[in-house]
Design a protein that fits this description.
By secondary structure, the chain is α+β, with helices and mostly antiparallel strands. It has 2 domains: 181 residues, Ribosomal Protein S5, domain 2 (2-Layer Sandwich); 147 residues, GHMP kinase, C-terminal domain (Alpha-Beta Plaits, 2-Layer Sandwich). It is built from 9 helices and 14 strands. The strands form 3 sheets. Strands 1, 4, 5, 6, 7, 8, 9 and 14 form an 8-stranded mixed β-sheet that branches. Strands 11-12-10-13 form a 4-stranded antiparallel β-sheet. The model has no long low-confidence stretch (mean pLDDT 95).
Length: 349
C-alpha cells in the first residue's frame, strides 16, 4: 500500500444492548422501520469494541478489515462487517480511507435474541465516528450521526446510542422522532421507570434458527402487517402516556402484548416459524401467576428469540429474587443475566 498514513491510533467503546418495549418488526428502503419503537437502554448486556486504525490519505476501493470476536477469528462476523461498511461508503466516504483491526467482545450470548447486533453495531459505529473526529481534529462526537450509521448496520442499534430510553421511527406524537435516527427520550417519565431492572433469563444460548433480518423480510407478505403497524403506532403513544403517569399496570399490559404480538407475527409468516421454546412458555405462565398472587408490577417481554426479559422496579427486588429462584431451573445452565436500565454507551479508550 503506497498511500500516505495521515492518522493512526486506537479507540474503544462499550455500547449496550436495548430491550424494545414497543417492537419494530418490518422495514423498508435503506433500513427504515415500518413502525416506531421505544426501548430501555440496558447496562450489563453490552459489547466492547476496540478499533486499531490507520487512516490513509488516498481513498481505497473498500475499507481494509481484520476482525477478532472474543479473541478468535470469526469469518461470518467479519464478512458481515465488510459487507456493511462497503455498503455505506456513499454516505460515509471516510470509511474508504480506513485500515482497521477490530476486536469485539460480548458480555452475553450473541445471536440468541438479546439484540446483540444492536450493541455490536452501535459500538462499531461509535468507534468509527470517533476515528473520523480524531482525524479531523474535532472534539465533540455527533451522536445523531452515530445513530444513523448504527441504524444502517442494524435497525435496533440506532436506539443503543442513547439512554436510558430511546425512540426510533416517525411518530406524530413524539417531537423530533425520525426514521433516520433514534432520539433520547423520557425526561418527563415517572422516576420509577428509571429504576427498572431487566433480568434476562437465558432459556437457550443457541443461535436462533431464523435471523431477525430474515424475520423482517417476511413481514412484507404477512397478512397481519397492516393492522400490526397501526397497533404499534397506537401502543407507542399509550406506553409513553402510561410512563408519564406512572401507570405501571397499563405499561405492563402493553409490554407483554407487544412481546406476544411479535411472536404471533412470526407464526403467521410464510413460511411460519416459532422461536419460543417449551421453557419459554412455562416461564411466562409462572411470571403471570406470580403477579396475580403478589400483586407486584413484574412483567415479561421477549425480543426475537426464546429468552425472557423480566422487568420490574427496584423496590420489588427482594420478592423477585424468590421468583427467579423458581425460574432458574428453566434456564440453560441456570443462567440469568442481571441487568437494569442504563445510561448509554461510554468510551473506554
Amino acid at each position: 500500500m503506497t498511500s500516505q498514513i495521515i492518522g493512526e491510533g486506537h479507540v474503544k467503546w462499550q455500547s449496550p444492548s436495548n430491550i424494545a418495549l414497543v417492537k419494530y418488526w418490518g422495514k423498508f428502503g435503506r433500513q427504515y422501520p415500518r413502525n416506531p419503537s421505544i426501548s430501555f437502554t440496558l447496562s450489563a448486556a453490552n459489547t466492547e469494541t476496540e478499533c486499531i486504525y490507520k487512516y490513509h490519505e488516498d481513498a481505497m476501493e473498500a475499507p481494509i478489515i481484520r476482525f477478532l470476536f472474543e479473541g478468535k477469528p470469526n469469518i461470518k462476523f467479519e464478512d458481515k462487517i465488510k459487507k456493511f461498511l462497503g455498503s455505506v461508503t456513499d454516505i460515509f466516504p471516510f470509511l474508504l480511507h480506513l485500515e482497521l483491526d477490530i476486536h469485539s467482545v460480548n458480555s452475553f450470548p450473541h445471536s440468541s435474541g438479546i439484540a446483540s447486533s444492536a450493541s455490536a453495531m452501535s459500538a462499531l459505529a461509535l468507534c468509527l465516528l470517533s476515528i473520523e473526529a480524531e482525524v479531523n481534529g474535532n472534539q465533540k462526537l455527533d451522536y445523531q450521526k452515530a445513530s444513523v450509521l448504527s441504524r444502517l448496520g442494524s435497525g435496533s442499534a440506532s436506539r443503543s446510542v442513547f439512554g436510558p430510553l430511546a425512540v426510533w421511527g416517525e411518530s406524530s406524537g413524539v417531537e423530533g422522532s425520525s426514521n433516520d435516527f433514534a432520539i433520547p427520550y423520557g425526561d418527563d417519565f415517572d422516576p420509577i421507570f428509571h429504576t427498572f431492572h431487566d433480568d434476562i433469563l437465558i432459556i437457550s444460548a443457541e443461535e436462533k434458527a431464523v435471523s431477525s433480518r430474515a424475520g423482517h423480510a417476511l413481514m412484507e407478505d404477512n397478512p397481519y402487517a397492516g393492522p400490526r403497524f397501526e397497533q404499534a403506532d397506537k401502543h407507542l403513544l399509550e406506553i409513553i402516556e402510561s410512563m408519564r403517569q406512572g401507570d405501571m399496570e397499563r405499561f405492563g399490559q402493553i409490554v407483554e402484548k407487544e412481546a406476544l404480538t411479535l411472536h404471533a407475527l412470526m407464526m403467521a409468516s410464510d413460511p411460519p416459524y416459532i422461536l419460543m421454546q417449551p421453557n419459554t412458555i412455562d416461564v411466562i405462565n409462572r411470571i403471570q401467576a406470580f403477579r396475580r398472587e403478589s400483586h407486584l408490577p413484574v412483567y415479561f417481554t421477549l425480543d426475537a428469540g426464546p429468552n425472557i426479559h423480566l422487568l420490574y422496579p427496584t423496590n420489588c427486588t427482594l420478592a423477585v429474587e424468590r421468583l427467579k429462584a423458581e425460574l432458574q431451573p428453566f434456564c440453560e445452565n441456570e443462567l440469568i443475566i442481571k441487568d437494569k436500565v442504563g445510561s448509554g454507551p461510554r468510551r473506554l479508550i
